[in-house]
Amino acid sequence: MAFKIIASQCTQCGACEFECPSGAIKFQGENYVIVPEKCTECEGSFDAQQCASVCPVAETCVPA
């Protein structure tokens, strides 16, 4: 399962893009999105999902 970004809550700060160890987050159109095929939920790299950890808005990076 991958994570997703709730676009209506995203402030577009970009913090998640730089923290994603699998490079699954990109800016597309007017929003950041998580490419499901690339998202590993940080398994094997971190104990917690980095996108959710660095996001300044709670519950914006959530399981899809």
Automatic annotation (TrEMBL):
Keywords, ordered alphabetically? 4Fe-4S, Electron transport, Iron, Iron-sulfur, Metal-binding, Transport
Q: Which cofactor does it need?
A: [4Fe-4S] cluster
This protein's name = 4Fe-4S binding protein
Entry's Pfam families?
Fer4_10
Gene3D superfamilies xrefs: 3.30.70.20
Q: Kindly give the SUPFAM superfamilies that the UniProt entry links to this protein.
A: 4Fe-4S ferredoxins
Organism listed in the record: Mesorhizobium neociceri
InterPro entries (UniProt xref): 4Fe4S_Fe-S-bd (IPR017896), 4Fe4S_Fe_S_CS (IPR017900)
- Which GO-annotated molecular functions does the record name? 4 iron, 4 sulfur cluster binding; metal ion binding
Query: What sequence ranges are listed for the domain 4Fe-4S ferredoxin-type?
Result: 1-30
